[in-house]
Amino acid sequence: MGGIHGLLSRRAGHHSRAAPQHVVDLGAGTARLLVNILREFPGSTAVALEIDAPSCEEARRAAERAGVGDRLTVMVRSVQSVATDPSPVADADVIHAGFVFHDMMPDEEDLADGVLRQCRDALNPGGLLAITDAAPYVTNERERRFSAAVTYFHKEFMGRRLLTDEEWQAKLTAAGFSSVETVPLRFPTGRLHIARKI
Ligand SMILES: C[S@@+](CC[C@H](N)C(=O)[O-])C[C@H]1O[C@@H](n2cnc3c(N)ncnc32)[C@H](O)[C@@H]1O
């Protein structure tokens, strides 16, 4: 198990008090990540924020099937809306956003920065924001072919700019986070940027 779920599992394995209490996923899709987290941590609650209404319906059904429907709140909303109404991220100790922030780059970068600041302010002390996203034009042998294709596709056909590890670290630091760590994922180009609030 990799990514943010793996990180939370390992952390809770080391310190039982580190189990997440309230997790928010921005651009949650059908909430597969949150359903798995809720199953592993029976004391936790979660919010799935997702702009696509049919995905939200499927998220609710998946949560019911898994027996965690009473602990998952699904909101049909845009990530951008968090810049002006941070209520979906209130009281979180973990906020995740997977492969959704790059959709705001470059046209809505200021809005994205506003969302990051709201996340930082809303997190409980000791909380973390985890951004999973694709890194552009990675040069190492394992990732370079796939990274070149993904970067080109996003730029030429979608008008999107993927951020480098350094750009994410600068952006998250500017949003007020005290430390930022970047972890490469097994998925080529995949990066997990973990920003902590003291
Ligand atoms: C590439 S998928 C990633 C899904 C999931 N986060 C994951 O990592 O597997 C992006 C998801 O974000 C949603 N999305 C795209 N733009 C969004 C926005 N502005 N606000 C909220 N959700 C958005 C899409 O509908 C889709 O479910």
UniProtKB/TrEMBL annotation:
Q: Which Pfam families does the record match to this protein?
A: Methyltransf_12
Reading the lineage from the top rank, the first entry is Bacteria
Organism lineage string? Bacteria, Bacillati, Actinomycetota, Actinomycetes, Streptosporangiales
Instruction: Identify this protein by name.
Output: Methyltransferase type 12 domain-containing protein
Query: TM segments?
Result: none
Domain (Methyltransferase type) spans 24-129
Q: What residue stretch is flagged as signal peptide?
A: none
